[in-house]
Q: What sequence folds into this?
């Protein structure tokens, strides 16, 4: 960012070759080398009129700031340029201002009016940047101005500006926390925003300003879940993290039934599925009998969150993957948590910093859920090139994963590690072996033997670490290991590492009865070297002396006294204290007799063996993936992850009145489609969804195929079912291989789960119904509202054409009463257009050969009205004027889209042209003049009409290939002596031809055309539009599509292909009671799709 | 979020700073320097360092530390990911000629990763399928662990708003994938087809993992005999590199690197081909082998002089191997076809395959 100006410095210089090379010294080539002392020079440059010089000066100044040099004395010279017209200069001035405004508040105020002006700029980018800078200037005096600016920007029509407003909120809050209440209002407003652009930023603001106001989320919960997939990566992280907390307050623990199994984590992991299956199975029985204990049913909203976050595990962003992983860890039923393992393991390929963080989290998770990572054991094997900190974390994970089955492999691996050159790592490995030995009884002796062998290692650190670990292991079963203790005692001659010496001495003292001969001798040696020992060793010598005195005072009395005397005069007060304390305890004196009688009990009490456990144990009380978890300490601003509630709070708080779960925006990009299955199609698509959810529960779909398909679907459906499932099966089954015995249980679990999800779907649907009934009025204007905003924000390239076109049609519509009898406002899409049957245009015979086309020329209007239009539904557009008779000097020309295939070229739209001569003289030589056509459009002219007598009419057919666009075809209509410029613009519905397909084909194709190829809108059907017949008629009139049979009565499907490219256009209309409906168009041609949605909605709602 | 950012070079100079909120004194970096000193090696500096008032989160790339200063709780990966993206951007920015094109311009568009109005006279789309073999081979030559990590890097220079689909002959090989945000996930889920509107220029379309359960072909082997003797101060060293499962392709760009034990003072070696160096200070042996000729296997042999009097080192060095095989994706992954929709011109399409050693280690 800050380096940007530096780079383009050269470019800037060469950009204006005419400019003098003013103040451009060789040193200015790079920011890192040059040193600017001549600030006067810069001031002068800033004062000139030349933008290039100003730019040059600003680049240098910003470079100075970036290097940490003080440039504050330039403030007056720089701030003057805040109003500079040059946008590049302006940007750099902003950078400067943000840096120094806090230091020079009075001068900074001079710039405020510029920003206030900028906030009103018609360009959204300028409005946004003005707000960004204004909110970054930390001058308390302008807080009210900032507040005002934020409020205004929060209702800006540009989502980009609203996003900037959301960013400004935490900045203002950090400047003046008294504004909290007002800011919360803004946050509440922005949380209701429906664009993906705003969502992440406002949740960030929410987290910084009012994370405790969880109530603000309720109404936006479902929307956030559904938008999530399309939000940018940074926003996703923030939203997921917040929703994790939210879910912990609103839903019930999905593992509550399993808590009994918790004690044995491994069993619990495998057992959980079975358990779930039981839970879910009993659920049905339970609902009828009303048992005392309520069975667990996952809230559909809880499920929604899990479902919508899962695809994000495939994100390229490590932060997003981690966020989803922690969400699953904290919220998902145990059987489902496993999916995150693969994604986390994938992150181990990333940069070492990412590995570091991921491994910390895996270490914590692997304690609770060992089974999840077991299949990936080898991914944690250590390479000699790993940095030490990574090695140690991997070792931690390997140790956590070690169990009875894999311990031989793990130990073999550890054996290689012990021979590493990295001694810190070797030490950690020895400790890891110690932990394995404590946790897995079977290998305790093997480990101990191995460690004893290490005692002869040449590296002292290795030996020392081994001693420490052996000491801990011996404490568990000291009696059997007298030999080892003897061996250790010998080591005191060589080993210098204090901790190891201390450990040996402690062991000898503690178990002196097992080595009665050696112990006094060791003490003798130690007494000799006492003064030279380290403090911890000295303390242990005193300890040893005391214990020996108590057990074997004959041999050691003198030695002990000697040691205690030495200790008495030691430099370290701890040692002096210990000596005094010990003497009082063990040596009977006149007063202290009471204590010394119990001295043996005090010193030689049986001590519990130390528990070697992971430092990651219980770290999961911090939210995983958080800074606090990583540091194992609460960081400032950390929000506790609440415990699950005992009773679920009222789920209806999340019901939204103008619920608009289908996304208004066109979806683009990664994963976009997950939300794309619009909520309302869920019921009919249930089979599909089930399929999609299956990987949640199991991997081995292949085997379960038969049972699955038997109970549910029509044949064709199940075919595709098994196909895709076997595919996913092979993909994943490999990873979780050897628990075949689990399959049965899994199946059970799966079956009942999917039932549950069905139920979920139903509930959802009914809920939505209620909502729809509740308010009809507001939903329609809400729809149009969002419509405009979305087209504005997203259709940068397309919108121009799009918006231009409808307007131009209207312009061309003649104000004639014959087409639309009762037209108040003339629009081509007025439905009245086709209601009166007598104005229906020609419907010529189906097969139109070129010769036939010529024959048709003879047909007149009156004839045509007699021909019933059975074959093809008629375009709503009807006949339109091509040339008015006044402009045509008596020649009137109309045209209509006949919806017949054009004989010459199947890519062409066939257009019927009706000529009528109202003049007194015949019109001769009527033909199409040389057309000047935009790229992609071509015309097949009609054969020349030689003569048209006065009062006569004629018809001709021409073909136009519009290139799948609604661009007008402009051409000349020539007579013998005149030329008329005319233009035909097709409504989007005429650019396609119907295709017939089965319901299944339709579904299949629709499945391919999702994401940004799918456009969905909500609408309310008026009362006049409730019957099947009317709906179908209106849709087919608007667009030349064929009806596709459909199982559900409330759903209408239509299909067609665009004429030029043959791209599929699929239209689905789902009508629900009370007029609410949802229209979906799937097409590769996004522009066509968007326009078609508009047109059809207009047709249906008018 | 991030308060400030400091860039620190290898000699410990803070050469760039940027503050997003109020200015944090650069003296906060002293905590970082302390940690750096403790870590001795750059790669061991903890990525997260708590200080009394701040948290320092850093990444180390191109011999530069990027240190972000944080004041409140934030997911550490959020910051680390961001810093890496910053570095990526710098890399693109300073490394590529057409800089103007690289800066983000699409933030308002429907397709945020692509700017509108892209124009090229030559429309081309190149895809590189690059697979890396991560492996650990034990002393006896058997594979401890091996897996394939692949990426598809693309360089797409296409006019307008092309909509591409890329399909594979054998998509089931891909066990775990992560996508550039442009890829339509559902299309992948349902059809195993990559469908996307590409960003302009260079980008990583896909990263994938080929399951460890599939047997991974190991294209090279290393025969080694490294021995230290207690009695003498001389050790013997000999390694030979040879091809194993190469699918008939040549193995090129082979380099061998090994960290020798501290006790090794010097090495006197003769390579049958290529050049080798031994740094007596870092004890790093590297041998640039070049191409393997199966008829005459490259070898490196000679003696090591050990510290006199010291006992023989108990560790044997690990051998790290690098190599390249052109025109081969070792997993067998094959691109079936690339189609373009939405634009009329015919683009030039190219697909290249390559296999490389990733983290490929041979234990001795």
A:
């Amino acid at each position: 960012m800050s380096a940007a100006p530096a780079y383009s410095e050269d470019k800037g210089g060469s950009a204006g070759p005419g400019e003098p090379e003013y103040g451009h010294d060789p040193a200015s080539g790079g920011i890192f080398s040059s040193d600017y002392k001549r600030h006067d020079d810069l001031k002068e440059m800033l004062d000139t009129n030349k933008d290039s010089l100003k730019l040059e000066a600003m680049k240098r100044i910003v470079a100075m700031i970036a290097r940490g040099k003080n440039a504050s004395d330039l403030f007056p010279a720089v701030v003057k340029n805040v109003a500079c017209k040059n946008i590049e200069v302006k940007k750099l001035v902003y950078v400067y201002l943000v840096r120094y405004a806090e230091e020079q508040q009075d001068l900074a105020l001079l710039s405020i009016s510029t920003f206030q002006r900028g906030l009103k700029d018609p360009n959204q980018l300028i409005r946004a940047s003005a707000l960004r800078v204004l909110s970054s200037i930390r001058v308390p005096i302008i807080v009210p101005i900032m507040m005002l600016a934020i409020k205004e920007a929060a209702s800006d029509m540009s989502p980009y500006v609203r996003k900037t407003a959301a960013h400004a909120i935490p900045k203002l809050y950090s400047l003046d926390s008294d504004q909290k209440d007002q800011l919360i209002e803004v946050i509440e407003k922005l949380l209701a925003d429906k664009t993906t652009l705003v969502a992440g930023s406002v949740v960030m603001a929410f987290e910084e300003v009012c994370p405790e106001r969880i109530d603000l989320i309720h109404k936006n919960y479902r929307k956030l879940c559904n938008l999530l997939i399309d939000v940018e990566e940074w926003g996703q992280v923030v939203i997921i993290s917040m929703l994790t907390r939210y879910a912990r307050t609103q839903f019930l623990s999905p593992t509550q039934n399993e808590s009994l199994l918790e004690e044995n984590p491994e069993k619990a992991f495998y057992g959980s599925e079975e358990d779930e299956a039981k839970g879910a199975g009993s659920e049905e029985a339970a609902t009828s009998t009303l048992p005392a204990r309520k069975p667990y049913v996952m809230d559909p909203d809880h499920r929604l969150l899990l479902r919508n976050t899962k695809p994000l595990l495939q994100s390229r962003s490590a932060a997003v993957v981690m966020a989803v992983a922690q969400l699953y860890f904290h919220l998902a039923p145990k059987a489902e948590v496993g999916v995150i393992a693969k994604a986390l393991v994938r992150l181990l390929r990333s940069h070492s910093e990412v590995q570091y963080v991921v491994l910390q989290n895996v270490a914590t998770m692997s304690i609770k859920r060992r089974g999840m990572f077991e299949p990936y054991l080898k991914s944690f094997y250590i390479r000699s090139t790993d940095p030490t900190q990574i090695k140690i974390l991997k070792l931690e994970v390997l140790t956590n994963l070690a169990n009875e089955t894999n311990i031989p492999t793990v130990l073999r691996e550890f054996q290689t590690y012990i021979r590493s050159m990295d001694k810190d790592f070797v030490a950690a490995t020895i400790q890891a072996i110690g932990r394995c030995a404590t946790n897995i009884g079977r290998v305790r002796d093997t480990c101990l033997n191995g460690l004893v062998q290490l005692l002869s290692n040449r590296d002292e650190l290795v030996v020392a670490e081994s001693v420490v670990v052996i000491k801990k292991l011996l404490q568990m079963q000291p009696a059997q290991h007298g030999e080892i203790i003897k061996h250790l005692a010998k080591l005191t001659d060589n080993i210098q590492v204090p901790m190891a010496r201390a450990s040996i001495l402690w062991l000898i003292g503690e178990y002196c009865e097992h080595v009665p001969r050696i112990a006094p001798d060791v003490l003798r040696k130690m007494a000799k070297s006492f003064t030279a020992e380290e403090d911890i060793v000295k303390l242990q010598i005193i300890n040893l002396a005391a214990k020996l005195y108590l057990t074997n005072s004959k041999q050691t009395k003198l030695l002990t006294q000697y040691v205690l005397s030495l200790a008495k005069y030691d430099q370290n007060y701890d040692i002096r204290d210990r000596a005094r304390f010990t003497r009082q305890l063990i040596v009977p004196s006149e007063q202290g007799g009471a204590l010394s009688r119990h001295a043996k009990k005090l010193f030689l009490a049986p001590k519990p063996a130390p528990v070697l456990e992971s430092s990651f144990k219980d770290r999961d009380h911090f939210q995983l993936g958080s800074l606090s978890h990583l540091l194992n300490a609460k960081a400032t601003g950390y929000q506790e992850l609440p415990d699950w509630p005992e009773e679920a709070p009222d789920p209806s708080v999340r019901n939204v009145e103008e619920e608009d779960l289908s996304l208004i925006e066109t979806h683009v990009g990664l994963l976009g489609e997950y939300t794309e299955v619009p909520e309302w199609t869920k019921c009919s698509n249930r089979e599909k969804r089930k399929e999609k959810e299956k990987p949640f529960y199991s991997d081995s779909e292949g085997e379960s195929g038969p049972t699955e398909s038997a109970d549910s679907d029509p044949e064709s459906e199940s075919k595709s079912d098994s196909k895709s499932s076997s595919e996913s099966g092979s993909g994943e089954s490999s990873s979780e291989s050897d628990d075949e015995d689990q399959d049965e249980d899994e199946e059970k679990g799966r079956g009942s789960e999917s039932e549950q999800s069905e139920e979920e779907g139903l509930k959802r649907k009914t809920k939505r119904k209620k909502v729809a009934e509740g308010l009809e009025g507001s939903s329609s204007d809400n729809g149009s509202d969002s419509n405009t905003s979305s087209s504005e924000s997203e259709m940068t390239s397309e919108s121009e054409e799009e918006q231009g076109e409808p307007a131009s049609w209207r312009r061309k519509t003649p104000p004639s009463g014959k087409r639309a009898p009762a037209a108040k406002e003339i629009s081509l899409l007025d439905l009245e257009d086709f209601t009166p049957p007598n104005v229906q245009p020609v419907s010529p015979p189906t097969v139109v050969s070129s010769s036939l086309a010529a024959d048709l020329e003879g047909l007149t209007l009156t004839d045509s009205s007699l021909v019933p239009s059975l074959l093809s539904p008629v375009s709503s557009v009807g006949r339109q004027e091509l040339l008015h008779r006044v402009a045509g000097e008596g020649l009137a020309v109309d045209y209509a889209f006949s919806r017949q295939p054009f004989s010459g070229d199947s890519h062409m739209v066939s257009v019927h042209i009706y000529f009528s001569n109202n003049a007194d003289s015949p019109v001769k030589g009527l033909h199409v003049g040389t057309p000047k056509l935009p790229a992609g459009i071509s015309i097949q002219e009609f054969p020349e009409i030689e003569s048209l007598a006065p009062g006569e009419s004629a018809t001709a057919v021409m073909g136009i290939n519009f290139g799948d666009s609604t661009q007008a075809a402009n051409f000349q209509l020539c007579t013998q002596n005149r030329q008329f410029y005319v233009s035909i613009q097709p409504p989007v519905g005429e650019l396609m031809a119907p295709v017939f397909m089965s319901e299944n084909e339709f579904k299949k194709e629709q499945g391919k055309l999702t994401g940004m190829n799918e456009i969905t809108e909500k609408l309310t059907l008026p009362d006049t539009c409730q019957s099947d017949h009317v709906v179908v008629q209106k849709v087919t009139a608007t667009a030349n599509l064929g009806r596709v049979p459909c199982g559900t009565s409330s759903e209408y499907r239509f299909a067609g292909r665009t004429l030029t490219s043959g791209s599929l256009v699929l239209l689905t209309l789902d009508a629900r009671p009370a007029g609410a409906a949802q229209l979906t168009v799937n097409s590769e041609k996004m522009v066509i799709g968007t326009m078609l949605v508009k047109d059809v909605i207009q047709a249906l709602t008018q | 979020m991030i308060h400030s950012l400091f860039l620190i070079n290898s000699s410990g100079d803070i050469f760039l700073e940027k503050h997003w909120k109020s200015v944090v004194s650069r003296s906060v970096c002293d905590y970082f320097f302390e940690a750096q000193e403790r870590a001795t090696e750059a790669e061991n500096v903890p990525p997260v360092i708590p200080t009394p008032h701040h948290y320092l989160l850093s990444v180390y790339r191109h011999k530069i530390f990027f240190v972000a200063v944080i004041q409140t709780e934030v997911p550490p990966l959020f910051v680390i990911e961001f810093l890496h993206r910053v570095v990526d951007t710098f890399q693109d920015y300073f490394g590529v000629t057409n800089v103007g094109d690289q800066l983000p311009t699409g933030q308002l568009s429907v397709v945020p990763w692509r700017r509108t109005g892209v124009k090229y006279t030559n429309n081309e789309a190149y895809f590189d399928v690059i697979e890396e073999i991560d492996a650990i081979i034990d002393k006896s030559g058997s594979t401890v662990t091996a897996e394939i990590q692949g990426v598809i890097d693309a360089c797409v220079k296409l006019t307008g708003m092309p909509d591409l689909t890329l399909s594979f002959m054998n998509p089931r090989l891909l066990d775990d994938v992560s996508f550039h945000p442009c890829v339509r996930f559902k299309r992948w889920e349902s059809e195993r087809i990559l469908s996307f509107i590409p960003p302009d220029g260079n980008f990583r379309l896909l990263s994938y993992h080929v399951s460890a359960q599939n047997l991974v072909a190991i294209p090279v082997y290393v025969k080694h005999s490294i021995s230290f003797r207690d009695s003498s101060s001389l050790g013997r060293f000999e390694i030979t590199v040879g091809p194993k499962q190469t699918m008939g392709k040549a193995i090129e760009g082979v380099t061998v690197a090994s960290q020798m034990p501290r006790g090794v003072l010097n090495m006197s070696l003769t390579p049958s081909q290529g050049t080798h160096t031994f740094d007596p200070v870092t004890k790093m042996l590297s041998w640039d082998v070049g191409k393997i000729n199966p008829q005459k296997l490259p070898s490196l042999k000679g003696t090591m002089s050990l510290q006199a009097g010291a006992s023989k080192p108990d560790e044997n060095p690990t051998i790290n191997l690098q190599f390249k095989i052109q025109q081969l994706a070792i997993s067998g992954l094959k691109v079936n076809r690339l189609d373009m929709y939405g634009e009329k011109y015919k683009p030039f399409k190219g697909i290249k395959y390559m296999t490389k050693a990733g983290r490929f280690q041979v234990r001795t």
